Amino acid sequence: MNCGLLSITGALIGLVIAGCATRAQPTEDSPKPADAAQATPGAVGPSVGQPPTQIEVQRHGVTAAARTGEAPQRLSTFAAPSPFDAAAWRLDPQGYAQRYAAVAEPSRGEVTADGEADAPPLVLVSPPRLEVAAGGSAIIVLDTLPFAPASFFSEDMASFANGLPYITLVADAAGRVAATVRAGAGVTQLVRVHAASPVARGTILVCIDIRP
Fold first, then answer.
1. Are 152 and 109 in contact (CB under 8 A)?
2. Spans of all domains in the chain
3. Which string of b and e fits 122-160 if b means at least 16 CB within 10 Å?
4. In the chain, N or C: fewer CB atoms in 10 Å?
């Protein structure tokens, strides 16, 4: 489902820069990644399925693109995303997916394997509509193929673990991938999150109602 992906300009670029300037620090009661994978869908928790070092690389790549004007696909949905090599992924799923996930691009939120008859559907495990308090966060959980990349994008000033409004994660050995989305400051209405995987059919839309 498509609610109309928009170019990330103006305020969203500001969110990108601000998000990369700071890094959220975990609290003592934050669940570890292994625990978060078992968390109740929609509950608060960290993103899982990707090493923090790659999240840092994603942020660095986006800030560099914003500073230099190069690699526009890292900043705008109007630019085509970098190609996904399905053959290379099949030869080395985990290795290729980790390299692919070293870059975050907003247009990946609609990159699917819809043209592949044998591709499985992307499955939403958590509820399609969530509700959180202003400034809170929720987990979106998907099932796909083992070590498949999955990308998430929000056009409503929400952010993910990398501090950006879009992120690419890698599913675990069971095909489970979970991303935490947090409403931006001052957001008190609907937040929409799109998700897709280049090795699965279909896109996912999750709507999050923000309570003031």
1. yes
2. 11-23+35-211
3. bebebeeebebeeeebbbbbbbbbebbbbbbbbbbbbbb
4. C
Among 161, 57, 148, CA closest to 108: 148
Checking DSSP bridges between strand 190-196 and strand 166-170, what pairing results, if any?
unpaired
Give 10-residue mean pLDDT values along the chain (212 residues).
Answer: 41 50 39 34 43 67 76 71 93 95 87 92 97 89 97 87 90 96 78 95 94 79
CA distance 137 to 167: 15
Rounded to 10 degrees, the C-alpha dihedral 197/200/202/205 comes to -40
Hey, what amino acid is at 23? Answer: R
Q: Which two tokens stand for residue 22?
A: 């700071």
| Residue 43 burial (10 A CB sphere; 0-12, 13-18, 19+) | middle
The CATH topology of domain 11-23+35-211 is Immunoglobulin-like (2.60.40)
Q: CA torsion angle for 151, 157, 162, 163 (degrees, to 10)?
A: 170
Query: Tokens for 93?
Result: 């799923």
